[in-house]
Amino acid sequence: MTEYRIEKDFLGELKVPKDAYWGAQTQRAIENFPISGIRFGRRFIYALGLIKKAAAETNMELGLLDSKIGKAIVKATEEVMEGKLDAQFPLDVFQTGSGTSTNMNANEVIANRANEILGSSLEQKGPVHPNDHVNMGQSSNDVIPTAIHVAALMAIDEELLPALRELEDSLAKKAKEFDPVVKAGRTHLMDATPIRLGQEFSGYVSQIDHGIRRVSAARGALAELAIGGTAVGTGINAHPEFPGRVVEKISSATPSKFRVAENHFEAQAAQDSLVDASGAIRTVAVSMLKIANDLRWMSSGPHTGLREINLPAVQPGSSIMPGKVNPVIPEAVMQVAATVVGNDVAISVANTHSNLDLCTMMPVMSQRLQQNIELLTNAARVFAHKCVDGITANEEVLMRYAESSPAIAAKLNPIIGYEKAAEIAKEVGRTGKTVKQIVIEKGILSADEAEKVLDPKHLTVPSKDLLGSGGG
User: Fold this and answer.
1) Does the pLDDT of residue 193 top 70, yes or no?
2) Which are the contacts of 84, defined by CB distance < 8 A and separation ≥ 6?
3) Is 38 helix (H, G, I), strand (E, B) or coil?
4) For residue 426, what are the domain limits?
5) Is the CB of residue 390 less than 8 Å from the CB of residue 441?
6) pTM of the model
7) Known catalytic residues?
């Protein structure tokens, strides 16, 4: 049977588990928000601990916080940062829109653990107070957005960007490997002029590279921290030097570099920077979805589909069809991308509820952004190493498609004109002959000329010899 102790706040008394470090405000939130079971992640809790540590150290330096109390707070925050107290952060992300419940959860846990370090029991109140000491110079309204930014930027720098670079490298290796391999291009899923498989993969490389640059650009706004703005951005109850010193300590403790918000009112009244970062991450997800879907198309079959490439067989694909292998890695990536897009919508909608002086849907914005970073990080690595690295090309199939495509007739536009070239393309479809065979039979080109003009390899690069409509 669970044992309890009695805690009080200005609303009255309530029971708290005897061994829990949290207090009355956290307990009320536990009882008020039994909604999803989704909690804030490890990075966010780490960021909260780091902020509280930097605040306590700063307040001691400024002569505002007794050193005995401050040092105990610092020790407790370090345990939070190390993950030793994760079980003491039980709150659902669906809670008060400012995240006040979670800020007070941190304040109460750190205060009670600090008191324990100083020799007090959980039943004794003091000497460390959650509001007066742990939350000194702070408000939930600047702590929570600061924690969101710190957690997001660290996750981007340490997880997402390295994973995307791994995917980019894997695609780049395949682009180089497949550069000589000619295939039929396809637009609208229909036959188009030839392209090299390596050229298609180079497009994928560029998509991921642009995505990395977009995410990197979004880092700038995330590096701005709201701490020091307190309730509404004015900095009430915070020392003028408090924000600068706290941010400096946060930067010193992490590989990522942070700075004080250019405008505290903007930093707290809205979370445009999260929308911006989420949008950049969403764009990468959409790029990955396109690439994954292309690989599914190109590997389709293998006997009744395109069969242009082979994806690594990583698991059986059917419970009823023996020997069937499905493109499971691309499909997993596509589902991740769909989830990222949905989370991005939630983040954008949440930011529209930044009414007057505070965004009031911050917890869900934080959780969805962190989830997107984690999902895309893992998906990029799985995609790179369990799929892209093992792709092989069916070169004979690819060349056969390239040579038999009626779209090669586009090269005849400058020679015989679009209308006559279109007639030849129709004849290809009607007879099954290649464009090359038909133009030789009709005497439009000699065999040598046809070999030169209609060689699919020559059609994958611009040529000034024969110019005309490029098709479309």
Assistant:
1) yes
2) none
3) coil
4) 405-460
5) no
6) 0.92
7) 188, 318
